[in-house]
Amino acid sequence: MIKMREICVSFRSERQEKLFGVSRDQILFDVSLDLEQGSCLGILGESGSGKSTLGRVICGLLKPDSGSYQLDGTEVYASRAGKKLLQNRLSVVFQDYTTSANPRFRIRDVLAEGIRVWERKSKEKIDRTAECRRLMELVGLNETYLDRFPHELSGGQLQRVCIARAVACRPELILFDEAISSLDAHTQVQIMDLLRELKEKLNLTYVFITHDLTSVTYLCDQVMFLYHGRVTEHIPVNQIAQTKNPYARKLLESVIEFA
Ligand SMILES: Nc1ncnc2c1ncn2[C@@H]1O[C@H](COP(=O)(O)OP(=O)(O)OP(=O)(O)O)[C@@H](O)[C@H]1O
């Protein structure tokens, strides 16, 4: 489904030696990955290692300096058709569910944003009331919440709404950028169970960006470690205990010590 080869990204450096300097800081170095349909890839790394930058490349928001990014054989950044293909297939769920839902919208209007995308894609007219009910049921929320505003829901409930909005446009791939990190541990498990269930039901592919090793082992089938913008390891999750990666070892030891 996704094939990335030697992706490099740099940003204009803040420390320019000349007045009109053009020096750049490289953030991603030759990142390559393959993602099969139906799989779940966890991207782990310390703060600043380039996870979200890679996420922005994956979701079509940041054109890399060099490298190839193909979706089902089509080069994503080479043409408008490539970007369009990606837009039609991908949804994103961000960490900050409080700001990703417009506070002036009722929940039904938040969901309508995703439903409209599906209407445009499919060129079908959808019964929005019925679709909102279906989506609420899909993410385990009571349909009476449809008339509430975001601040009238708990963090976990609101993140469920954001997940419902993400699946409303019937994507094949969903990118989660620290999407459960700010929830309490109990709610995180509930949301991860929901994500597992949706993945099976809707045959979805996930990319899951996180600091949290536990959620990766719970949800993902493969894990990629980024360190200072380079992939240091990309392994199946069931081999994580044997990893030599120092960052992964540190995370593993902290989980084991904590347990
Ligand atoms: N638009 C930008 N312009 C300049 N530098 C940027 C930009 N976006 C990110 N960076 C820099 O790129 C580096 C990687 O940032 P990124 O957000 O990808 O890391 P991360 O691994 O997701 O970190 P965190 O876990 O803290 O979110 C950081 O040093 C950051 O300051």
From TrEMBL:
Keyword 4Fe-4S annotated: no
Q: Name one Pfam family in it.
A: ABC_tran
GO terms, molecular function:
ATP binding; ATP hydrolysis activity
**Domain of life of the organism in this record?**
Bacteria
**Keywords from the named record:** ATP-binding, Nucleotide-binding, Transport
Q: Which CDD domains match?
A: ABC_NikE_OppD_transporters (cd03257)
| Entry-linked InterPro entries | AAA+_ATPase, ABC_transp_ATP-bind, ABC_transporter-like_ATP-bd, ABC_transporter-like_CS, P-loop_NTPase
GO biological process annotation, one example: transmembrane transport
| Domain ABC transporter span(s) in chain numbering | 2-253
Q: Which family does it belong to?
A: Belongs to the ABC transporter superfamily.
The record's annotation in PANTHER family points to:
D,D-DIPEPTIDE TRANSPORT ATP-BINDING PROTEIN DDPF-RELATED, TRANSPORT ATP-BINDING PROTEIN
Q: What is this protein called?
A: Dipeptide/oligopeptide/nickel ABC transporter ATP-binding protein
